[in-house]
Structure formats: structure tokens, C-alpha cells
């Protein structure tokens, strides 16, 4: 029988994984999107309820299969930065269709969000400081991991949400003074948020910023070093100097800047396997930073067989795992992934959870 960890046990194992202190099991996290819940409904819920190690938090009826919230097709939303979002598919993130700084003439009268209001989110309302503090207190009282999310798309993506992608690419080449001013203002904004978060003394702060495309990056490592790296280093360094771990999610091919990402001070890197290559991740990251491997959602999960999924999880633990720790799994489930593959994934994460203890 699978032991269902208490919040304290889960927190302890998570921190031991991040800090290379010989965790008891390899953590596997599966996130199911609302479009998948809506499509598979009770069939997906039965799978979730069978796997208590992976879905220890879930209780029957927790998800309303028809509640898309803001992410309903046809909805529009203007975020705290002045970016207009359109949602094109139920249950999935939208895209920015109007950029407040599309013309640099708007920069002189532009104001960033007020840090007193809370933590801005991607394509969603700001989370107030009161709500952040309440969530921290609940987690601490329960004995669980105390985690604060800084939102997805917090820096590189925020720059092109504000400017528009093509404009930003031109800025990186032409280097008008305004791009340096914007980068500095955005960095100071996140430093201020980080200072406020640090006062709450969480275990870890989570950032998300998709830097890559399918087989390359849209910018060079040199451009990353000039415009993005210093901001990451300052914001992450502020938290790390206070003993707080930093988790960075980044989708896409980022092989060329993995060394730079480690140098920023991150504790955990959530990167995709298929577009970066497990061999590259082993060569460049293993033992240097905790890898939270993002399981292939392009082919393996939606179209692979249950056997392929099981074999994949076992092979990756043998290649990237260690008795010391430093490996976790994350999987995003969307409507193209059938429940039987979610079942196979969760079973593999449970069955091989202690395989790393057989390694050196």
C-alpha cells in the first residue's frame, strides 16, 4: 500500500530533494488543466483518486468540471500592466493582443503596477498581499511547504507583453535608451516584491518565464546576458541571501543559457525534456541544481503508450537521479492526453519513487 505523506513529510522530502540531502522518494507532480478536466470529467477524477502519493491533496468533488473562470473562450481582460488579453480556448491561457508600450512615446507617461497592491499574475488579477499572507499562514500552520508564487511570464515575457514581440526583438538589436530604462524599472519592481515576500519567510519562491522556442532561443546567449540575466541575478540573489529557495520554470529550448541560469542562483530549474534533451540536462545540470523535469507533453503523454511512459520515467531516474536527490518530475496534462496515460504516469511515479536510492 502507498503511504500518503503528511504535509510535514512532503515538505521535508521536498527540501531534502532541493538541498541534495538524500530524499526518501522522487517527487512527481501532475497538473491537470481545466480543458482536460472538462473533457474527461469523472473518468479523470477516478484516476486521480487512485494515486494518493501523486495527488495526496485531492478530494472528490474539488474541481467543477465546467468552471473555466476567466479562461473562457471569447473573454477579454486588461491586466494590471495595461496589457489586453484575449482567451481563445476554454480552460487555457490567453494571449496579449494589445501592448501598452507598443510605441515608446507612451513610456514617459507609463506607470508600472503599485507594489503595495500585491503580486501581479499573468493574464489574471493581482493577488493581494492579504491573500498571500493568508496562504503562507495556512501552509505554515498545516506544517506543509511554504511557497509563494511570483507569477508566470514575470520578466522576458513581460517585456514583450508590454512592447510586442517584434518590437522587443528590434530593441535588443537597436538598443534604444528606453529598453534599458524599462528593464531597470522592471527589475526594481520585482526586487521590491521580493523584499516584501522575504519578510514572510517562505521556503521557496516560484517564478515562471518561458525563454525558449521548439529548437532554439529567440535571443542569443549574449543578449540574454545583457538584458535578462542581471535582473534574474538581482531578484533571485535577494531571496537566496535570506535563505529562501528560488524555483524557476522556463518552457522551450534553453540549452545555450543553462549555465547562466544556474549562475543566477536558482535552487530548482523546471525545464522541458523533449526540447532540451535529457543528455544535455545530465551534462549541464546534474548535481549542480535540482532539476524539476517537465515531462514531454508534445508526444509522450498524449500519444505514447502506457508502457512507453513507464519505461521513460524509469530511464530518466537512472540517468538524472541520485541517492543525494536533485530530481523531481512535473507533468502538465491537457485535453489531448487520455486518462489511461495519466494513470500510467502516476503509477510509474509511484512505483519508481525510490529507485534513486539504488544509485550512487
Key features?
360 residues; alpha/beta; TIM Barrel; 7-stranded parallel sheet; 3-stranded antiparallel sheet
CATH architectural arrangement: Alpha-Beta Barrel
Taken in chain order, the helices and strands follow as HEHHEEEEEHEHHHEHHEHEHHEHHEH
Number of domains: 1
- CATH C-level class is Alpha Beta
Distance between the termini: 27 Å
> Major sheet: order of its strands?
1-12-11-10-9-8-7
Structural class: alpha/beta
Report mean pLDDT, rounded to a whole number: 97
Helix count, per DSSP?
Answer: 15
Rg from alpha-carbon coordinates: 20 Å
* Helix amount: 40-55%
Largest sheet: 7 strands, parallel
List how many beta strands DSSP finds: 12
Q: The CATH topology, please?
A: TIM Barrel
Low-confidence stretches: none
Q: Which outline best applies? A: globular
**Proportion of strand residues:** 15-25%
Determine the oligomeric state from the structure.
Answer: single chain
Amino acid at each position: 500500500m502507498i503511504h500518503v505523506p503528511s504535509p510535514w513529510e512532503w515538505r521535508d522530502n521536498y527540501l531534502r530533494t532541493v538541498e541534495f540531502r538524500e530524499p526518501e522518494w522522487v517527487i512527481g507532480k501532475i497538473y491537470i488543466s481545466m480543458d482536460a478536466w472538462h473533457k474527461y470529467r469523472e473518468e479523470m477524477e477516478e484516476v486521480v483518486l487512485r494515486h494518493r502519493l501523486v495527488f495526496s491533496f485531492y478530494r472528490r468533488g474539488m474541481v467543477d468540471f465546467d468552471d473555466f473562470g476567466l479562461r473562457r473562450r471569447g473573454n477579454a481582460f486588461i491586466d494590471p500592466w495595461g496589457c489586453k488579453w484575449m482567451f481563445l480556448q476554454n480552460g487555457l491561457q490567453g494571449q496579449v493582443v494589445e501592448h501598452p508600450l507598443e510605441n515608446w512615446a507612451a513610456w514617459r507617461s507609463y506607470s508600472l503596477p503599485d507594489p503595495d497592491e500585491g503580486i501581479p499574475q499573468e493574464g489574471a488579477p493581482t493577488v493581494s498581499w492579504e491573500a498571500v499572507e493568508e496562504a503562507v499562514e495556512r501552509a505554515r500552520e498545516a506544517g506543509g511547504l511554504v511557497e509563494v508564487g511570483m507569477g508566470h511570464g514575470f520578466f522576458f515575457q513581460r517585456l514583450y507583453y508590454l512592447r510586442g514581440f517584434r518590437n522587443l526583438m528590434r530593441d535588443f538589436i537597436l538598443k534604444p535608451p528606453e529598453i534599458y530604462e524599462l528593464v531597470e524599472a522592471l527589475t526594481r519592481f520585482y526586487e521590491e516584491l521580493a523584499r516584501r515576500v522575504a519578510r514572510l519567510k517562505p521556503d521557496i519562491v516560484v517564478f515562471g518565464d518561458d525563454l525558449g522556442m521548439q529548437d532554439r532561443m529567440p535571443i542569443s546567449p549574449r543578449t540574454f546576458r545583457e538584458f535578462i540575466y542581471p535582473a534574474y541575478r538581482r531578484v533571485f540573489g535577494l531571496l537566496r541571501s535570506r535563505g529562501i529557495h528560488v524555483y524557476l520554470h522556463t518552457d522551450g529550448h534553453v540549452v545555450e543559457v543553462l549555465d547562466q541560469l544556474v549562475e543566477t542562483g536558482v535552487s530548482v530549474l523546471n525545464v522541458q525534456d523533449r526540447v532540451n534533451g535529457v543528455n544535455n540536462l545530465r551534462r549541464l545540470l546534474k548535481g549542480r541544481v535540482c532539476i524539476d523535469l517537465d515531462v514531454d507533453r508534445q508526444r509522450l503523454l498524449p500519444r505514447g503508450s502506457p508502457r512507453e511512459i513507464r519505461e521513460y520515467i524509469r530511464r530518466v531516474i537512472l540517468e538524472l537521479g541520485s541517492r543525494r536527490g536533485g530530481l523531481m518530475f512535473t507533468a502538465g496534462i491537457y485535453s489531448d492526453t487520455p486518462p489511461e496515460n495519466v494513470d500510467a504516469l502516476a503509477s510509474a511515479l509511484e512505483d519508481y519513487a525510490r529507485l534513486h536510492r539504488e544509485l550512487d
